[in-house]
Amino acid sequence: MPADPTLDRLANATLLVPFESTAAPRWLLDGLADGIAGVCLFHNNIDLSDGPEALKGLTRALAEAGGDPLISLDEEGGDVTRIGQAAGSGYPGNAALGAVDDTALTEAVHTALGAELRGLGLTVDLAPSVDVNTAADNPVIGTRSFGSDAALVARHGAAAVRGLQAAGVAAAAKHFPGHGATELDSHLDLPSVDAPAELLRERELRPFRAAVEAGALAVLTAHITLPALGVDGPATLSRRALVEVLRGELGFTGMVISDALDMDGVRRPIGMPEAAVRALEAGCDLLCLGRYSYADEVAAVRAAITEAVRSGRMPAERLEEAAERTVAVRRWTAARGAPPQIPSDLGLDGARRAVRVVGEPPSPADLADPVVVELDAPPGIAVGEVPWGLSPWFPQAERITAEEDSPSRVLARASGHPLVAVVRDAHRYPATREFVAALCRERPDAVVVEMGLPVWRPECRTHIRSHGAARVNGQSVAELLGGVPAPVR
Question: 172 forms bridges with which residues in the sheet?
Fold first, then answer.
């Protein structure tokens, strides 16, 4: 059947696509000119090694090619960062902000983050995460959540939405209907939240209701099931979840974005083109294709969408409705003015306020010339390879693995020196807990720093909790330990 340029352009208006490198390829520029709604940037698209000009040049080229397309990324601050991929984020992250529990701070931090993004030419942030992290062993949320209390997450999620949008960046509250009670990663599996409907509405849905009431322009879906709500397959493909619950019960009228369609939680076993069609049928308006779906994959998705309309499987009105919602957000972002000026140290101040000390407060005078060991932890897929730890402030710090090293070697090295052990989500790794416990049995004066969720505490003199592993979280701990001069207050 010959191509229908009008239908192809309508399908393009539902696509959020990635691309290969730090320069926009010709296929993308042509696609933007032909109506592709927007792009999603990943770390392979962002080069800030010589300052912001390269990224600004890229976003200008994208904007000019597509008439103000949506230029998006996952920039949560904290552990999930794209603009901070090389050195770590300058913003403390949701768990740290939840620990402080000052909504004015959360709003200000997200306004600062949004202003930085807008200054770089970005218009949509796939944030905030408003998942209520009730599963301690959650492999995909963790410190990305404001906390385990639905009311706390709701008020901070709303503050984050207000902050980002005050800076002219559209916020996308995620991962609807709530990924916080899962013990599987939807990048790899299809998790299920098995809880009564009443609990799901009070816990999982409450923060999304708050985000909607705060004016969130977008909501991003999750590839999870919630049987008690009648969501038996991925929520991304569920009309029950997206139309009856999100729009009907919560009153959302904005743009629904799918989580990445290259994730196994949604594409297995049907493939991404079929998942794209089903997501549109279910009520998604903008299809995030993931990280590695380039020209051929984009063409296959577009062809599947147009064929679904031609065959009568999907009404053209559904595609038109989706396109209208993506266009509305494009118009909103295009109409925003210059971003506000924000104090540059706001993120660091927030991280400092989030640090908690259990046990004896550390004395930098007693920590002269410490032996610092960092117990490595594998990065989650959403986080990726982002620097963490205390080595920028303690250059002698040693990164080790619990499986390949021995407590006796570390203890020998630390003889006659203060000992600092740094961990990240130690509660998730038995070998790390055993290693640190062995250190503390011989050195009860050891300082243990937890840069993930502080679920487990060893028997040690001092337990420091940063509630995140961003660069500013690390600096805040380093100040306590004497690796950086403490600020004058």
Answer: 218
